[in-house]
Design a protein that fits this description.
This protein has 20 helices and 9 strands. The protein is of the alpha+beta class. It is globular and about 85 Å long. 41% of the residues are buried.
């Protein structure tokens, strides 16, 4: 045979071998799809050395620019997947909700609220969790929220009065408002002052609870489970966790006991969630008092997100006086100065609503949401989301994506007047984008969206109608003390930290209306007094 024919034969053989090899690779990848891309792994520890303990959302957003819309991290034998687009949120959490609705295991969360009774942090989306969601859906449905509008209006009136008389306590007044309103709809009793036992006790225990769940606060028992075997006398962190559980359990037990006592005494019911849950426990699938106890407690904890959003609004007013003035001019035009805003006014306040959306985009309270856990392997867009992986939705990154938002690091409310989602003109948006992304997705979406939205909108309208917000002036230097929207907690929720601001009533007319209105709503408030 000629050398030429041998060469042709060799080339053909090599070509067929190459085709076969490529086919085998494709077949292997189909059966064993890859994880999403991510930083280089170190044997045994993975990415342990580069995963930040604080402000994860900022680092995740930077990594998204390098690795794309989805990337993975490995910490020891744990897989973390971060998704950075609304479409992926929809594909992973909505379309695959049957396998993406668990929470990652948290030993500390389980020690504080065992047996999956905590609706937010409970690991399993099981029957216990479903019964809690069913009860919450009743209490927080649009119809139920509407029936409580008079009470919400009354509590919002007291908030204005509190700010009028002690503006220096503004940060805690906002917390009292959201807590008191939540206490009313959950337990049928309110907290009229900062010194009210239920208000004071919650403000004491909840920050401790949140801090205990933050990365780096306590020993990493989820990474090194053997630490949980250390006896309590040698593990101070166990004593801390036990104390938090005691404080939290005592508060929630007292609140539930008050409802049980009212029902036993056949007092007039107040339309509270816990009254409904007690009456319909069997139908709801609630089969223990512990379950009832944490059903109310978890919903009460949700009030902190509402107060944090209001606190961010105040800081935005101070830092952007031009925007504050535009909100006030719009409210003055729609509402006038002879009455306070009502729920009917809200749809007409287009710029104010854009201002709120920009605050939520610019500094979202939950920049990464709460992580989900995959309960089985799923392949999405060619990448493997393995069973046991913790999946984060990077809400911060989605709201600061330069592909869609013009100057994302600047505060520009007008972007939401030009486009309902605030994106650039002339581009094709992500088709799965929605405004309530910060409330989560899939089966774990927050059940209190309507309540949070109405509360935020009414109170922003009230605050802008009644007060002028400006920086505090240093008494020694005469310089303005500007707050910072970057001064927030390092946990999963980016709760702003208290900073001094100046709050002044806009006129004596506004003062008189607030005082008079508080007298008018007093009968409504008294219905929720113990």
């Amino acid at each position: 045979m000629s050398p030429f024919l041998l060469t042709i034969a060799n080339i053909l053989a090599l070509a067929w071998a190459s085709v076969a090899f490529i086919s085998l690779i494709r077949l292997f990848r189909q059966k064993h799809p890859p994880l999403p891309p991510g930083p280089t792994l170190i044997p045994l520890i993975g990415n342990l050395l580069i995963v930040p303990q604080k402000r994860l959302h900022l680092e995740y957003t930077e990594w998204a620019k390098t690795y794309g819309d989805v990337f993975r991290l490995k910490v020891m034998n744990n897989t973390i997947i971060v998704i950075n687009t609304p479409t992926l949120v929809h594909k992973v959490f909505d379309l695959k909700s049957g396998s993406s609705s668990n929470r990652p295991k948290s030993i500390i969360a389980g020690m504080i609220a065992p047996n999956n009774v905590h609706m937010a942090t409970g690991r399993y989306a099981n029957d216990t969790w479903k019964s809690s969601r069913k009860a919450a859906a009743y209490a927080l449905s649009p119809e139920s929220v509407k029936t409580r509008s008079a009470y919400q209006y009354a509590e919002a009136t007291q908030l204005m009065n509190d700010l009028l008389h002690s503006p220096e306590l503004w940060f805690d007044h906002l917390r009292r408002y959201t807590l008191s309103f939540s206490l009313g709809i959950i337990y049928g009793q309110r907290g009229p002052t900062l010194q009210s036992p239920d208000i004071a006790d919650f403000m004491n225990v909840h920050p401790r609870y949140v801090e205990a769940l933050e990365m780096g606060t306590l020993p990493p028992v989820d990474l090194f489970p053997f630490l949980a075997l250390v006896p309590k006398k040698w593990a101070k962190w166990k004593q801390t966790v036990e104390h938090i559980r005691h404080l939290q359990h005592s508060l929630y037990d007292r609140l539930l006991s008050n409802v049980e006592h009212r029902l036993a005494e056949e007092e007039s019911e107040r339309g509270a969630l816990m009254e409904y849950a007690i009456h319909h426990a069997s139908k709801l699938g609630i089969n223990s008092r512990e379950h009832l106890l944490y059903l109310g407690g978890v919903l009460l904890e949700g009030s902190e997100s509402c107060s944090a959003a209001l606190q961010n609004i105040v800081y935005a007013f101070v830092l952007h006086p031009y925007c504050q003035r535009k909100v006030q001019m719009e409210i003055d035009s729609v509402v006038g100065t002879d009455r306070t805003p009502t729920f009917d006014d809200i749809p007409k306040l287009k710029y104010m609503l854009a201002f709120i959306e920009e605050c939520n985009r610019f500094r979202p309270i939950g920049p990464l949401g709460l992580p989900h856990e995959m309960t089985k392997d799923e392949v999405i867009d060619g990448y493997l989301y393995p069973k046991g992986a913790a999946v984060f939705m990077n809400i911060w990154g989605m709201g600061h994506d330069e592909r869609y938002f013009d100057k994302p690091e600047e505060f520009i409310p007008d972007r939401f007047l030009e486009n309902p989602y605030g994106i650039k003109n002339g581009i094709t948006d992500d088709p799965a984008r929605r405004l309530n992304m910060l409330f989560g997705a899939g089966k774990r979406v927050c059940p209190g969206i309507v309540l949070a939205k109405t509360s935020l909108e009414l109170n922003v309208a009230n605050l802008a109608w009644a007060f002028k917000f400006s920086p505090k002036v240093d008494s020694k230097t005469g310089q303005e003390i500007l707050p910072s929207l970057d001064n927030y907690g390092d946990g999963v929720t980016a709760v702003p930290k208290p900073m001094p601001v100046t709050i002044a009533i806009r006129s004596e007319i506004h003062r008189d209306i607030i005082i008079g209105q508080l007298t008018e709503v007093q009968p409504i408030l008294s219905m929720y007094e113990v």
